[in-house]
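Q: What would this chain look like folded?
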Amino acid sequence: MIIGILGGGQLARMLALAGHPLGLQFIMLDPSEDACAGVVADQIQGRYNDIAKLELLAQKADVVTYEFENIPAAAVEFLAKKVPVYPPLLALTTAQDRLYEKKLFRKLDICTPAFVPINNLEELQRALKEISYPAILKTRTQGYDGKGQAILRRNADLTTAWEHLNGVPAIVEDFIPFDREISIIAARNHSGEIKCYPVTENVHHAGILHFSKALKNDSAQHQAADYVKRLLNHLDYVGIITLELFQVGDQLLANEFAPRVHNSGHWTQNGAIIDQFENHLRAILDLPLGSTDSSDYAAMINLISTVPSREKILQQTHANLHLYGKEERTGRKLGHINICTSDEATFNKEIGALQNIVNSG
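A: My prediction, written as structure tokens:
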């Protein structure tokens, strides 16, 4: 069985690593000469809209998936006429547009921050009579890791923010003073079987995820799982999905969803019985989903821009190091560390030590 992947980054790399023990082979399409998944998967080098390369991928793969949501929807539509592609096209096109996404949440009675669609500066100025300051302006498409966003604190910010976003279609939302940011990752296969992982608390800096901690038996689990199951069943979804949420008191507000394996679920590689990558593969192949039961304490620290000493990291007894084979570059995700244990004191001690190592470079 050969799995095709659109994209050859670290998520494709980890999908292939999870699939090799299952006897699966992988081929990915990526425009980069040095795609980091190339060490564990065959590569077709080319653009995602290159029809000849898409045709070749369809010929070689038994099923196709994708590792990120900013691929052209037309590429998935083309492939789906020739080979099964999961997650479904509707999930991709919805996740690619923040307005469609927010409207779907509302349709499914999933609470969201207040929002207004924006097409020009005049509409933005009118919207801020309805949306109170502070607010956040976001492009409808092509936004990730904090890109395509601007904070609005007063009327004087509006023109600058609109110009910063280059005047593309956008939405403006209430800026939520959340108690915490959480996400829930779930899998659904063709048969409709669903498995949810424990919710994860996430810490971002400048829009980039730095730290995630699994919250076993958390009070938000039931509501988060209910929300994500509504999405999965409505979309007739197949694969792993990630729903990102703001928690304010006892209320959960949906921010966005990702139709793919996700950075906030990397802890599952060492902290869950079956990780998100293997369960994604099981789902798209309609195999029984694996247990999402987790360690008592599990977390992930991202390695961004630089990689500290491997020796120092591995001196921590419960540290599991995952490097992506990428060259160092400012703002680039280069790897992550998972910490999983049954002892809370040990967990907290090693988290602190590792964060000091990472922060000191």
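The longest strand covers residues 239-248.
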